[in-house]
Amino acid sequence: MFFQKHDDDEYGYKMWLSEDEVGDLLDAAHSSKCRLAFQLGVRCGLRSDEIVRIAPKDVKRTEAGWMLRVDSAKTDGVRQTPAPEVVAGMIQAYGESGGATEPVIGVTTRTSRNCVKRAGETLANETDDEMWAHLSPHDLRRTWATALKAEDVESLIVCDWGGWSNLETFLEHYRGAFSPDAQRQQREKVAWL
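The chain above was modelled as a monomer; its predicted structure follows.
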């Protein structure tokens, strides 16, 4: 896990998870809906308020693959972000029982944030790494964006998918932050590290 002290002490830490840690987090979800909420953050880059509003009607198969159409309160617009097939399938499956327009998570933003906090605290206890207790929903979005950059996804595409208004805003929040996996790959290039 990579972390930095947040510029504003009120917010604690900015955190980035490795792919293994993402798996640990998903396994620590105490319900299938919490697991889906985590995936919407860490695999699709949704903000916490967007996660709780996603409904089956928002999943679309396009020429680019499965996409989520996200109505963002923050940007006052709709954006599309890619969704792994498993996430799109889970959303559609929930729609079969709840209807196409009903949000699949079915909880408040606060409850969704508490799911992340609860899983983080569980992992802090299990791993003896207290940094897990500082995990926030935004860290999932941060991990997603940084992982895309580590895989050389074009910065402007990441901005478009993530709903950032411009590259400068994106870089302001993510510049100099590299995923734990990217850092490990770079260290492996140096024999004495």
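DSSP finds nine helices and five strands in the chain.
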